[in-house]
Amino acid sequence: MLNKTKSFFKGHERTVKAKKNIIASLLIKGVSIVVGFLMIRITLNYLDQTKYGIWLTLTSFMTWFAFFEIGLGKGLQNKLAEALAIKDYKLSKIYVSTTYALLTIVISAVAVLFFIGNFFIDWTVILNTDKELANELTSLALVVFGFFFLRFVIKLVEIVLRADQLPAIANTFGPIGNLIALLLIYILTLTTEGSLLYIGWVFSAIPVFVLIIASLYFYKTKYSFLAPSLKSVKFDYAKDLLGLGFKFFIIQISSLVIYQSANIIIAQAFGPGEVVVYNVGYKYFSILMMGFSIIIMPFWSAFTEAWTKKDIDWIKNTISKLLFIWLGIILVGIVMLIFADEFYNFWLGNKIEIPFNLSLTLLIYFIALTFGGVFRTFINGIGYVKLQMYSSILEIIIFILASYFMIKHLEWGIESILIAMICSNFYGIIIAPIHYKKVINNKAKGIWVL
């Protein structure tokens, strides 16, 4: 056993580093999944199903404001990984400092506009709920979005860790915050009645607190040479960050519209209660994506480094291994589908019923998503994302038209949202594998290498 363990951690330095991150991330994510399931159960006990649906729908609106990150995070990850690969630490510090400065300017402007506009927004209309909740929802929005804007900037420490191929450490911040939040919500169930505002404070303030502590620690120790400073802010380098970042920005818009608007569409078409049904099923099968993301996440920056150093053989071998692992994801998903009802009953009792059709559609959706994820990770890592950017615009159109047609004309249930998502994911399913083969075989030209 000891010899096999030692053998597992032998090989290319880049691969060994990825394996260590994967194992650590699996342990961290395991804790995160357990905490996440407990969080839903305790929160449902604290709030009723309708209020919990309101909370899920409101928080889904926050993802729309991620538009204003304009891809700077992904741009920084690639550019910083390249700079670290060639050991240009001065350039690395410039990239980090400039990104902090740019994002602070953009988010500050957005935050001011939102706080002014919030007093004129009727959240009861948007969330399709009772008028008597108007004042509470206005206050809740101020708390939730206020901390969300702050988290926008301070979460850049996670990008620095990922660029240095240490995603496992970056992944610890979320579970730590969730553990603290779980304890506080449990205390709320014992001391107060169901309050959306209290939930908002707990879920919003705790992640920010954890990220502030993490930033202070890492920029004082391991990454003191990267610590952001005004002297290192060079807006001349903004073009490097924004050029690549803008492409990721457009891709992120597509992802947000397609994947995050689901709660809003379901709330409007079927009511807030169905948002909970959708999210419970989604939470269960998203374990597949969580597990696979843990495996492929370390390879984003690893592909950046390998491509910079022209290590093509390592890239080919890694892609083949990732596809083999993807086959294992399918088998795990089938087992999850077979035991889905038993798990729902164990998890939530008889409070919520999840239809089999929804579970089956969710399985197909995540199988398709993880397949495309193998090739997207490589393409994103090397920055050849212009074709993906154009495809993402078309994906939005397909998603909207497919959702509207299936809900209005075929009168399908919430499964129609997932079917529309699958249809719109044509880049990941069809184009991304072709894109990879062209690039890796040095046959890509024009838009394939932009």
Which helices and strands occur, and which strands form pairs?
Blueprint: H1 2-8, H2 13-46, H3 49-62, H4 72-85, H5 89-117, H6 123-126, H7 134-154, H8 156-163, H9 167-170, H10 173-191, H11 196-220, H12 238-260, H13 262-270, H14 272-308, H15 312-338, H16 340-348, H17 356-382, H18 386-408, H19 415-424, H20 426-440
Helix pairs in contact: 2-10, 2-14, 3-14, 4-5, 4-8, 4-12, 4-14, 5-7, 7-11, 10-11, 12-18, 13-14, 14-15, 14-17, 15-17, 17-19, 17-20, 18-19
Element string (H = helix, E = strand): HHHHHHHHHHHHHHHHHHHH
Uncertain segments are none
Strand content: under 5%
Tell me the Rg in angstroms: 22 Å
The number of helical elements comes to 20
Number of domains: 1
Shape: globular
Q: Can you give the mean pLDDT?
A: 88
Largest sheet: none
Distance between the termini: 47 Å
Q: Tell me the structural class.
A: mainly alpha
Helix content: over 70%
- Say how many strands there are: 0
List keywords for this structure.
mainly alpha, single chain, 450 residues, 20 helices
What does this entry look like structurally?
It is globular, with a radius of gyration of 22 Å. Helix 4 packs antiparallel against helix 5 and helix 12 packs parallel to helix 18. The protein contains 20 helices and no strands. The chain starts with a helix and ends in a 10-residue tail after the last helix. It has one domain. The mean pLDDT is 88. It has 450 residues and is mainly α.
